[in-house]
Structures are given as C-alpha cells and as structure tokens.
Amino acid sequence: MPSKQPFKRHRFPAVIILCAVRMYLRYPLSYQDVADLLAERGLDVDRSTVFRWVQKFGPELSKRTEKHVRRSSQDWHVDETYIRVGGKWRYLWRAIDANGQLVDFRLTARRDAKAAKAFLNRAIERVRLHRPVSICTDKAPTYRKVIRDINHRYDPHFDYITHVDRKYLNNRVESDHAALKRLLGYRQSFRSLRSAKATLQGMETIRTIKNGHIHNRLPGVQGEITFVQNLFGIAA
What we know:
Layout: H1 14-26, H2 31-40, H3 47-65, E1 75-85, E2 88-97, E3 102-108, H4 113-127, E4 134-136, H5 141-154, E5 162-164, H6 171-184, E6 189-190, H7 193-210, H8 220-231
Parallel strand pairs: 1-4, 1-6, 4-5
Antiparallel strand pairs: 1-2, 2-3
Helix pairs in contact: 1-3, 2-3, 3-7, 4-5
C-alpha cells in the first residue's frame, strides 16, 4: 500500500524531490548529473541524497501508478537480458504485450527453468483474469517446459496458452530491451539486487507513463510531470 505521507521528515519540498527522481529515471543521467542540474537552479543536493530519493520514491511511484495502467493485451513477448549487480551478471526477465506495454519484470541470479517459472507465474497472477492466450519467446527449451506446465495446471486437457518460439517474431521485446539499456547507459552496474530492483521499478514505471500506457495523462513532458505530481497530491 502506498505511504500516505512519503515526504515526511524530508528537508526539501516534494516537488523538488519528485523532479530529481523523475529526471534520473527518465534520462540517462548519473546521480551526480542530477545533483549538478539542481545546483544550476540554486539547490545544494548531494548525489547520495538523490540516490536515497530514487531508492525510496521509485517503488512508491510504481505502486501509485499501478491502478492507472491500461489493461495489457493477451499476446505476450517474453525474453531475458542481463545487467551487472555487485560485479556479477544477473538476469532481467521481462514480458511486454503486443503494444509494447510492460506486463512485468523480474531480476534473478540464475537463468534456469525455476527462474522462468517463477517469473511467468507472477506475471500471470498480476493480470489475474486476463491471462495471455499466446506467449512468444526465443527457442530456449526452458520456456517450452514452463509454459506446458502452466497450461497443465489450468487444464490438463487443453492448452490455454499458445507458445510461439520463432525468434524473429520476438524482436519487439528485444527492441524494448535495447531501449531500456540505452536509458541505463553507463549505469548498467548496480551495487546490490535491492538497489537494482528499486531503480528498475522506477524506470519501468516512468517508461510506462512516457509511452502513454496509462489512463488520464496529458500529452508531452508537461503531461508526465503533472501526472506524477497528481499521484502524490501535489498541485501543478
């Protein structure tokens, strides 16, 4: 449940905090870059403070946005990519629908059937009654077994979910991976899984808002700013 007073005990006004968090999550900037941009406006903020704001308000922004997100289509594209966390490669599982809207993501230490099953089960539970009718993946045998098991759980005699494993048809999610990697830029290495998850949660939410996959958002960057401020009850 979103916090009722997330800005309590913060020295800076809510509008400044949200501005800094949104800039970091929307553009390929470092924490120092954001601190420098704030300094140009006469605000003395340390980069470690910007980091703490992103870690706190990225997940909070995601929670508050969730009820405004449009319903995803029932044709999914699923794939995994990788990022560095604590000096090691970790796997980022992502599912988007036919319109490019994010369904869910999950960051794991392993790339195996157990991780794939946990990710798909959580993604399906998240959409509840609007389960996918097709899931497009690459030819990794892991997906075939996991989707077969999920189908068997729902109905042993009928494959509710059609598995499409033609790699060229999965270019949509691979292109979306590339867009996320461009946003991450040189920030593709995180110190811990916790900070990586919080940051990615905020980034994916801002991308969802930017791409218009939410209800009641005005067009343009100003529309994004107004939407975020309204989520936190801040008058534009």
